[in-house]
UniProtKB/TrEMBL annotation, chains A, B:
Keywords (A to Z) from UniProt: DNA-binding, Transcription, Transcription regulation
Cited PANTHER family: HELIX-TURN-HELIX TRANSCRIPTIONAL REGULATOR, ICLR FAMILY, TRANSCRIPTIONAL REGULATORY PROTEIN
Keyword Transcription on entry: yes
GO BP terms: negative regulation of DNA-templated transcription
UniProt name for this protein: IclR family transcriptional regulator
Origin species: Bradyrhizobium neotropicale
Domain IclR-ED span(s) in chain numbering: 75-257
Pfam families listed in its UniProt record: HTH_IclR, IclR_C
InterPro entries to which the protein is assigned, alphabetical: GAF-like_dom_sf (IPR029016), HTH_MetabolicPath_Reg (IPR050707), Tscrpt_reg_IclR_C (IPR014757), Tscrpt_reg_IclR_N (IPR005471), WH-like_DNA-bd_sf (IPR036388), WH_DNA-bd_sf (IPR036390)
Domain of life: Bacteria
Length: 258, 258
DNA sequence: CTTGACATGTCCATATTATGGACTATTAAT
DNA sequence: ATTAATAGTCCATAATATGGACATGTCAAG
């Protein structure tokens, strides 16, 4: 998130509060304990506690009274709704996703990054009768699971991608028997060729995906195409990839213009 | 947003940063100048500038180099996506919105508050052939314009509602010739009867709306029903209001359980 | 029931950060 | 060209945020 520009001074509290929000984001489903937050942010417990109380007072965090766990608060949701139009990837990319589904006949997914997860925000089915509905719109899974996630990891700085894979390693068991090492290889291969191939997203399913970037080069999201394995041999992937790249170029141009 | 609980100490910087984010939220479409932010937050300009630089460093704000204006940043969007499931009003309320559209035959809207605006996040048309599509999904307008906005204002503390109406007063001209005084009267009337009636949302259109609350009593959003004027005489409004209230009670119960 | 481990939460002397008046630079309006 | 408005910087110091020490609460083990 931080660029290489000169860091501002007198903003330690803001940086610390943002770090706490990132810790909450990582556990936005399960909720975070204060001990988790203190450990992940490197803050002393009284400091973490005070920052949490400050965020709660502003509506940016909430605490479940029963479990004592902390969550992102309603003001974050509200701000997110207002921020959405400036990053309205769903609207801008929706046509491209529909076009790719029509042209390929397969299922096309649009995803964005959410912390260490990928969030599916759009899906279009193609005409081919066997649909690879591997992901529901609105769902989330660790970055690396799914071709879109691999493509997004490949678009991130290597250290950041490695850190995410390390964080996600214990979580992979919920999604099959793929290992972090295998995912690291898929990410490296994706970096090399410019697009991700996931040959074993699920048994019998294969996928190809590519990242979408903001004007400043930052990661905006990804588009991926999934089909039954025998519909995606190497030759067809090599035909689909340029089509995907062309649509993504158009999306990136519109993101630049907005 | 702030409750009446004891305010935490040692969190002035967080409160100030949140105030800056609110100022950015108010102008999330047009962008905010630093002078705007300093004035609205009451901060001295060097302080406002430094806080903005801190938020930019964390990805919570961005600055357009050409216009110099500041906007909510990509990290806010990402956090908003992660916060959404805990406040997934669209999912929880979707069935109620569809049911009300089916039962009344008219158009039903679901909206949330976004700063001083109302954001339409869901719309269902009923079977009656004349549709009151006064608002597009995804659109926003000042709170007070539209029945859902009036209902949300009525659910807020009176001072907060007055402050929002004051802020929105100069903006009303874009939406017809209704005045802030008229809106204040509609809000007061809504507070009295427990639901909002907007007899002149647009020429020939009338609407009825009600707020949805979170478990803690805070405002979650609103549901409103719009139709051509002669389809909503007083007698019919008195039949629709209990139905609306019953559906909203169900939604609030599910919000509590989630 | 008791004990120990772990976690949450509070206090306040003081270390350190954040502040904002004074100033410079840039842009827009006249 | 001049003036007004706005953006942005600097740094002495005001005042905020810190975290070690401690209190309290919860839960699992014995």
């Amino acid at each position: 998130m931080k660029d290489d520009a000169i860091k501002p001074t007198g903003t330690q509290s803001i940086a610390r509060a943002a770090a706490v929000l990132r810790a909450l984001a990582l556990r936005s489903q399960s909720g975070a304990r204060m001990a988790d937050i203190a450990r992940e942010t490197g803050l002393e417990r009284p400091t973490a506690h005070r920052i949490l109380q400050g965020l709660i007072a502003e509506g940016m965090a909430t605490q479940n009274e029963g479990t004592r766990r902390y969550y992102l608060g309603p003001f974050i949701y509200e701000l997110g709704l207002l921020a959405e139009p400036r990053f309205h990837l769903r609207e801008i990319a929706g046509q491209a996703v529909a076009f790719l589904a029509e042209q390929t006949g397969d299922t096309v997914f649009l995803a964005v990054r959410g912390g260490n997860d990928a969030l599916c925000i759009e899906r279009k089915a193609g005409s081919f009768p066997i649909k690879a509905f591997t992901v529901e719109v609105g769902s989330r899974m660790p970055l690396g699971i799914g071709c879109g996630g691999i493509a997004m990891l490949a678009a991130l700085p290597e250290e950041e991608a490695a850190s995410i894979l390390k964080f996600n390693a214990p979580r992979l068991a919920e999604y099959g028997d793929v290992t972090a090492t295998q995912l690291a290889e898929l990410v490296a291969a994706a970096r090399g060729r410019g697009y991700a191939i996931n040959p074993h997203r699920a048994p019998g399913i294969a996928a190809v995906g590519m990242a979408v970037r903001h004007a400043d080069g930052g990661l905006a999201g990804s588009i991926s195409i999934a089909a039954i394995e025998n519909r995606l041999p190497s030759e067809r992937i090599e035909k689909i990839a340029p089509m995907l790249r062309a649509e993504i170029r158009k999306i990136e141009k519109m993101l630049r213009a907005s």
